[in-house]
Amino acid sequence: MFQKNIQPSLLTPNWKQKYYPWLICFSGLLILIVVNGLTTTSLSVFDKAFLDEFHWSREELKMRESVTNGVTLFFIFISGMIIDKIRVRKMLLFGTFVLFATLASYSFIENKYQAYLIHFFLGISMIAAGSVSCIILVSTWFNEKKGLALGIVLVGTSLGGAIFSRLNNILFDLYGWRQAFLILSSFPLLIFFFILFFVKSSPHEIGIKAFGENTGASKPVNSDLLTQGMTYQNATKTHLFWLICICGFCTFYSLVGTIANVFLHLVGLNFTEKDASYYLYLYFLIAGFGKFLISFFSDYINPYIVFSTCCLVMILGIFGLSTSDQSFIILSICLLALSWGGIYSLYNLIIVKTFGLKEAGKINGTISMFEGGGAFLGPFLTAKLFNLEGSYQIPFLINAALIGFVFIISIKFKSYINKIKPTETL
Prior knowledge:
The protein has helices at residues 13-37, 47-54, 58-86, 88-106, 112-129, 131-140, 146-175, 177-184, 186-198, 232-235, 239-268, 273-296, 303-322, 329-355, 360-389, 393-410, 413-417. It is mostly helical. α11 packs parallel to α15 (360-389).
């Protein structure tokens, strides 16, 4: 008798060790595509419809984004503490379910206060299942190739905006905005069930090690990456921690404030709503490419020089938008997107590699509070200044000046990080 060749089961430890970390990596990408794509700037595609139907001022309209980002400001630290206690998978399940219920409810709003309440819960879903949770999730599964893995995941924060800014426009044209929100609510529901069946918080939950760990050696007690790194107390004693917090506030104020208003800015420059949504799509697509590209090469290039260079490029992008010259729009959008991709990726990579994952929830949560503070004020104050000035020139120039301040601070990054005993060499 001939002995049959038996193929190894897809559930064997060797298969799981080799492929499951990458399944988690692409799970993080998928989660961020949906969560970030449906809680952030892509929803501005519906802005003109809201203005026409409800007759809100731009200030009242943009207060929605400030509510969402304000939730991040006030609750992200608590979310980080919860992640440290119960692990990240439960937070992802909670966040995606809240997003499903919230988007479904959006189709029934009748006034701005209901819209603000909806955006409150959008903020809850974002802090529970957004970038902080996904960064911690994926970092836990990779000892090596962490830059590549994070780069793949962080593409989701921009790719989601690119996909849904176009999809939202299509759904609006076909069904109107109320029906569009009901259709959009199905995406986080599908992600909820995907997380339920496939996502685990740590490789040790399924009996394997993080990617790049020595699989032939016996498993040390503290080999779980979630147990390695600086404590929150020690991290907050470093100068670098607070420099990152300050830079996070300024960059998120400038970037979110600019992008949240760019759709209406383009419409005001006589672009059609379809063309304006295309430029949003272009922005998110290029930003996603920038996040992947910079993260991929993060082990081969000097991250501090690249970070500072990206700040200069972002200044040029915002300044180009402030001129209100149609011929500068495409170039300005491209510069803004590419520079933001680099800045955002390097922020997260420096944080994880410098401070580790031991108390990453609280560390990332605190930094995200500052980022949330900037994101909270940016859209509203940029719109407020538009109402006062009658154009976006002055508010965009202020946003560019804040990035100039970040550039000056970023020059100090390397000198301060050299004073810290890193958890992993950058």
